[in-house]
C-alpha cells in the first residue's frame, strides 16, 4: 500500500496539497510516483504563471510514462522547486518532501479535497 502523509490534503489525481498560510505546496503522492516509476524529468511552471482550475501545473516524465500534475483550483505560481531540474528522482525518494510548485489559490475549498484518511480509503478502492 502506498504511503500517505497524514498532514496533507489530496486530489483524486494523486496530487498532495500542503497548506502553509495563504501559500500552498503541490506535489505528487507516493501512489503516483510509484505508478510512474523512476522519474527522469520534471517540466516546472514559471513564477507568476496563472493556471486555471483542473489545468496542468507541471509535467513529470519517467522511464515508462509521462504524467501531468494538476491544480484543483485556479492559482498563481509563487515558486517552482528548481531542485527538481537537477534531481527529478527526489520525487521517488521523498514524494512528500519534494514539492513541485508553491501557489496561491484563488478559491481554495478544502471540502473539494480528501483528508489522508479519505485518500487511503480512495486508494483501497482502486
Automatic annotation (TrEMBL):
GO terms for biological process: glycine decarboxylation via glycine cleavage system; protein lipoylation. This is Glycine cleavage system H protein. Binds 1 lipoyl cofactor covalently. The glycine cleavage system catalyzes the degradation of glycine. The H protein shuttles the methylamine group of glycine from the P protein to the T protein. The keyword DNA repair does not apply. Its cofactor is (R)-lipoate. GO terms for cellular component: cytoplasm; glycine cleavage complex. Residues 23-104 form the Lipoyl-binding domain. The gene is gcvH. The glycine cleavage system is composed of four proteins: P, T, L and H. Keywords: Lipoyl. Gene3D superfamilies: 2.40.50.100. The modification N6-lipoyllysine is found at residue 64. The keyword Ligase does not apply. Belongs to the GcvH family.
Amino acid at each position: 500500500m502506498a504511503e500517505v502523509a497524514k498532514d496533507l490534503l489530496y486530489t483524486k489525481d494523486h496530487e498532495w496539497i500542503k497548506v502553509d498560510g495563504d501559500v500552498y505546496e503541490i506535489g505528487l503522492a507516493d501512489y503516483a510516483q510509484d505508478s510512474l516509476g523512476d522519474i527522469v524529468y520534471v517540466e516546472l511552471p514559471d513564477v507568476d504563471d496563472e493556471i486555471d482550475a483542473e489545468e496542468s501545473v507541471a509535467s513529470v516524465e519517467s522511464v515508462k510514462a509521462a504524467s501531468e500534475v494538476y491544480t484543483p483550483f485556479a492559482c498563481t505560481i509563487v515558486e517552482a522547486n528548481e531542485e527538481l531540474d537537477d534531481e527529478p528522482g527526489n520525487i521517488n525518494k521523498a514524494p512528500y518532501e519534494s514539492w513541485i510548485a508553491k501557489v496561491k489559490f484563488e478559491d481554495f475549498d478544502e471540502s473539494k479535497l480528501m483528508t489522508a484518511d479519505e485518500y487511503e480509503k480512495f486508494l483501497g478502492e482502486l
